[in-house]
Design a protein that fits this description.
40% helix, alpha/beta, 3-stranded antiparallel beta sheet, 379 residues, 7-stranded mixed beta sheet
Length: 379
């Protein structure tokens, strides 16, 4: 279908294309010097000691959990209003995800109060998700973690460039995880980054990222090593050089494009405030988000399918972020999760719609979307 307004679009031009072509011309396309440069520039941008390029945000989460020694019998508290990878990564470690509810219909981030309610003697870590690019209440969450001796992983897939009390998201907990999937604020197609200030955790991530090997192909190519040992059960989670070349260019554009996203958000907020049958989460948020997506919550009287279909007929692409993880068939069948466990999450899961938001949108585009909404609602 030819969308008039796409849900997501990429600020990608000749600079990224030329950077990738240069990598191809070099003939070194697996993880090497370009990835090292991307890691260095990304860690500098965040103000964190260690950054490791990986094949996806999911790989980043799995490595973070493994590096923190999460294992069978452990519990990890996670939100259910997130992409399924957040919880799946816990299962990859044979641990159990324990779901916590969101804070409110105005703040769709995980509730610190409910996190505390879900802690048991098996709890080893908390994964927070900065939903839509809005930072969680990290002060409260870090205090809980300190009180109970828990580790904190920040799933910052939505939040690259966002800040909480002057610190970049991903640098506040023990480990930060980023996704550079094709709809993110920083795009490499597939790929991600895992970051930490902890030297011991960093060493574990470095080993686990590449099959548990003590030396990489790039090291041997440069003559720094002739062989290698395998010291742990690792994975093939490396980032390739083409993705890293794109990432270096995209990083330079990030702050500018996040400001453009903020302009789109502000225009939506201004135009939608007169519509009383929908609400805008985070509209009073005072921090520095990354404005990854624009969620709205429809009132009970509006049929969500008909609403999304009505916008589709006008050429406006929408989505849902997210169907709650604990209600997926697999999670119900394997763990006995059921409806009613997380009432606020479940309400949002039934009534949320995501409107288009990306740095290429104009005020006229926002006006078109809002007019399409008004025509559907009021004829």
């Amino acid at each position: 279908m030819n969308w008039r307004i796409m849900l997501s679009d990429i600020d990608l031009d000749e600079e990224e294309i030329n950077a990738v072509v240069e990598v191809l011309k070099s003939k070194w396309i697996s993880m090497g010097p370009v990835t090292q440069r991307f890691e260095k520039e990304f860690s500098s941008y965040l103000g964190v000691k260690h950054a490791f390029g990986v094949s996806s945000g999911t790989a980043a989460l799995h490595l973070a959990l493994r590096a923190l020694d999460i294992k069978q019998g452990d519990e990890v508290i996670v939100p259910s209003l997130t992409f399924v990878a957040t919880a799946n990564a816990v299962l990859y470690c044979n641990a159990k995800p324990v779901f916590a509810d969101i804070t409110s219909f105005d703040n769709l981030n995980v509730s610190p109060d409910d996190i505390q309610e879900k802690i048991t003697n098996r709890t080893k870590a908390i994964i927070v998700v900065h939903y839509a690019g809005y930072p969680c209440d990290m002060r409260a969450i870090m205090e809980i973690a300190e009180d109970y001796g828990l580790r904190v992983i920040e799933d910052s897939a939505h939040a690259v460039g966002a800040e909480y009390m002057g610190k970049k998201c991903g640098t506040i907990g023990d480990v930060g995880c980023f996704s550079f999937f094709a709809n993110k604020n920083l795009v490499t197609g597939e790929g991600g980054m895992v970051v930490t200030d902890d030297d011991r955790i960093a060493e574990r991530i470095k080993i686990l990222r590449s099959h548990g090997m003590t030396a990489l192909t790039w090291d041997r190519y440069r003559g720094h090593s002739y062989s290698y040992d395998v010291v742990d059960l690792g994975y093939n989670y490396r980032l390739n050089e083409m993705a890293s070349a794109m990432g270096i260019v995209q990083l330079k554009k990030l702050d500018r494009n996040n400001r453009k996203r903020e302009e789109v958000f502000s225009e939506y907020k201004k135009r939608l405030r007169r519509i009383d049958c929908l609400s805008i989460p985070f509209k009073k948020f005072c921090g520095k988000p990354s404005y990854h997506i624009f969620p709205i919550i429809l009132s009970k009287e509006i049929n969500r399918f008909e609403f999304m279909q009505g916008l589709r007929e006008k050429g406006v692409q929408t989505s849902i972020h997210y169907p709650p993880i604990h209600l997926f068939t697999y999670y119900r069948r394997e763990f006995g999760f059921r409806e009613g466990m997380l009432p606020k999450t479940e309400y949002v899961g039934r009534h949320e719609v995501t409107l288009p938001l990306h740095p290429l949108m104009t005020k006229r585009d926002v006006e078109f979307v809002c007019e399409a909404i008004e025509r559907f609602l009021y004829g």
